[in-house]
Amino acid sequence: MTRPLKALELFAGIGGFAAAAGERATIVGAIDISKHVLEVYEMNNDHGIHQLNLATLDASDLEPFEADLWWMSPPCQPYTVRGHQKDLEDHRAASLVNLLGSSAS
């Protein structure tokens, strides 16, 4: 049997990926900026939570988690029809843009 993937849950919210992945993935950490959603996450999961601003982290800051994959559920409002459709000009897009830019280096 192969080992489960080690996943780092970014924009973790209340833990949708952890719940869906079940035993198919080992969650090595969950990162979100919201203290409130992380409190809910922690009630439902027993792996480490981290309240961090992904708009200020570099990809190298995530290396210690030794994840096989990053699972990301970034805010969708900058891009959706129901949002203001500001795309990259929306402040909520900064964290995803930052991660994508730093991972390409």
Give me the secondary-structure topology.
Elements: E1 5-10, H1 16-21, E2 25-32, H2 35-44, E3 49-51, H3 59-62, E4 69-72, H4 94-103
Parallel strand pairs: 1-2, 1-4, 2-3
What features would you describe in this structure?
The protein contains 4 helices and 4 strands, in the order βαβαβαβα. It has a 4-stranded parallel β-sheet. Helix 2 links the parallel strand 2 and strand 3. The radius of gyration is 14 Å and the shape is globular.
CATH architecture heading of the domain at 5-74: 3-Layer(aba) Sandwich
Helicity level, as a percent range? 25-40%
Count of separate DSSP helical elements: 4
Order of helices and strands: EHEHEHEH
CATH fold-level label of the domain at 5-74? Rossmann fold
Question: What is the number of strand segments?
Answer: 4
Q: Rounded to an integer, what's the Rg over CA atoms? A: 14 Å
- What would you give as the CATH superfamily of the domain at 5-74? Vaccinia Virus protein VP39
Provide the spatial order of strands within the biggest beta sheet. 3-2-1-4
Please write the CATH class name of the domain at 5-74. Answer: Alpha Beta
Biggest beta-sheet profile: 4 strands, parallel
Unreliable stretches: none
The amount of beta strand, in percent, is 15-25%
Which class best fits the helix and strand makeup? alpha/beta
Note the main attributes of this structure.
105 residues; alpha/beta; Rossmann fold; four-stranded parallel sheet; globular
